[in-house]
Every structure is written in structure tokens, then in C-alpha cells.
């Protein structure tokens, strides 16, 4: 599949001055808050988050490879927005713009490379100019969603959403074009729409965007989908909020459980905890425990306990405690002088005394 050849056939190969090229403010890899920011702001973010320095090192050593031209569209004022190749353009800008380099996280290496590369603002750069964003869609989608240069999941989801909402493509059209199955496309669309709805509710979605795969796993868990009223991706209505308004509070609490909210820590430690979270949320006792602030482990234990005969539950707890204390006794001789161990033994004794007192065995 030679998408670059296809793009070249629909566009025009040119050599354009570096100073005429613009970073794409709609780049799917940019955080939502950077959409539409200044060119310098975009470059600083791309340099920090996407290792433009490595590209700059290659350019300084070997020059800019004409076999991999940038892909751009005209912006109507004589300049060109690069829709594919923003990391390479950031590297070029860093090599030519001394003022921009001072804003980078570590300007030192850039200064040395700039002297070695000798790139100037009026240097000509190979670019394929296409008539519209949609003309470049096949190569961008294939490279960055199913190809060897895959974006992070949230960037993939945003790109899919752009194709569906702006280009009016169906899930099937997108899947066929970029070479993935329809289920992945529809799930990416739904999960991105959930993030958008959450942001419009005033929720900080920065952590969600950074660890988007957690939301993807959560939405593959039927009990969590049911909790917030989400549908299967294939059943998601395009252009509409995916979560019913009456489930907004459930969406907010799910995001808090997954990511925290700045004041409250997430209840999961890793993605493997998400299925356990689904089990807890689907149980009224477990759900109440989470909502009261219990940890996932404690909520899970309460869920299990709720389904057990009280007498059997008591016997299980007593026998588990006894077994733990017996095992601890084997380790105790090595730590007889440990004050923390001594304090823990006192706590265990106090708990045993309380049990005896409850039985009337003073």
C-alpha cells in the first residue's frame, strides 16, 4: 500500500521556503488546550513531548530526506499548514530559530546542532501540497493508526472523530481506509466522544487523555458501560453526547475512580484492576462502599461478604486471622527488637482482647 505515491498523485511536489511552513494547530497529538495556540507554543510542546531533538540530530548529520516530503495544504495567505510531518517541521524550526530554542526544555544540544546543520529560514524544503486535508487522510490514517508510526490512543481517537464528524465518513469507510476493523474505529469514536462530553461538563480530562487506554479498557467492560449508560461503539450515534444526561454523575465518578480528581486518588492501580472495579460497581454493596470512600480492595471484600451467611463470614474471618498470626509467629524471632513489629503485636493482642471481651471471656 503506497499511500505516499497516492498522495503525490493528487497533490503537487514542490520545494517551499521553510519560513512559509506552519505547524498544524489541529494536530491530533496536541492536548485539547493547545488547539489553536501560537506556532511557538506548538513547537515547544512537540519538542518536549515527541523527541524532535532526535530528528534534528538526523537532519544535522544527513540533511533533510527528500524521499519523505512534508504534506501540506495552503492556508489562503501564501503559507502552508503541514498536516503530516509536524515533528520534522519542529526540528527544522528549532535548528533555524534561536529565539524559539531558548523556550525548549534543554536548549544546549539544540545550539550545537544548529551550528552544525546550518539551516536557514529561506532554505527550500520538499513538500507535497494537497488540495485539502481529506486528500492526505489515507496516508495519515494508515501510518498513525494501523501502521508503524502509531500515535498514542487518544490522538488516534481524535483523528477518527475528525474523519467521522467533519469528513462525514462512516465507521466502515474509516476502517476500510486505514486498514483496521470497524469495531476498533467505532470504539475509538465513542471513547473520544466520552472524553469530549466530560470536558464539556467541566471535568479535567488531561489525565484521561494521557492514559486514554484506561478508558478504552473500562468501556470494554460491560458492567462499567452499563453503569454510565454507554453503548457498544458500533451503536454510538455520531455527533451526539454518548452518555445520557441523567448518567452525568456516574460518568464523573467513573473518571474519578480511574484517574482521580486532584484531591481524590484513583481507586485502581493498573488496568488489570478495571474488571474488578466492574464487579464492585455492579453490586449495590460494593458501589455504596466506593461512594463512601472505601478502597477498591475494601469495597470488593464488602461485596463478597454481602453474599455470605453472617456466621460463615465470622468463622472465615476468625480462621483467616488465626492462620495469619500463626504464620507471623514463624517470622517473629528475627524481629524481636523491632519497635514497629512490637507495636503491631500489641495491636493484634488488643484486637484479640476485644473479641474475648465481646464473648464475656475477660
Q: In words, what does this structure look like?
A:
With 362 residues, the chain is of the alpha/beta class. Helices cover 59% and strands 7% of the residues. It is built from 19 helices and 5 strands. The chain has helices at 3-10, 39-49, 52-62, 86-96, 98-101, 107-117, 133-146, 153-165, 171-178, 182-200, 206-210, 212-219, 222-228, 248-259, 274-281, 284-291, 296-306, 310-331, 339-359, and strands at residues 12-17, 21-22, 70-74, 80-84, 124-129. A 5-stranded mixed β-sheet has the order 1-5-3-4-2. The chain is elongated, with a radius of gyration of 28 Å. It starts with a helix and ends with a helix. The model has no long low-confidence stretch (mean pLDDT 87).
Write the layout of secondary structure elements.
Layout: H1 3-10, E1 12-17, E2 21-22, H2 39-49, H3 52-62, E3 70-74, E4 80-84, H4 86-96, H5 98-101, H6 107-117, E5 124-129, H7 133-146, H8 153-165, H9 171-178, H10 182-200, H11 206-210, H12 212-219, H13 222-228, H14 248-259, H15 274-281, H16 284-291, H17 296-306, H18 310-331, H19 339-359
Parallel strand pairs: 2-4, 3-5
Antiparallel strand pairs: 1-5, 3-4
Helix pairs in contact: 1-7, 2-4, 3-4, 3-6, 7-8, 8-10, 9-10, 13-15, 15-17, 16-17
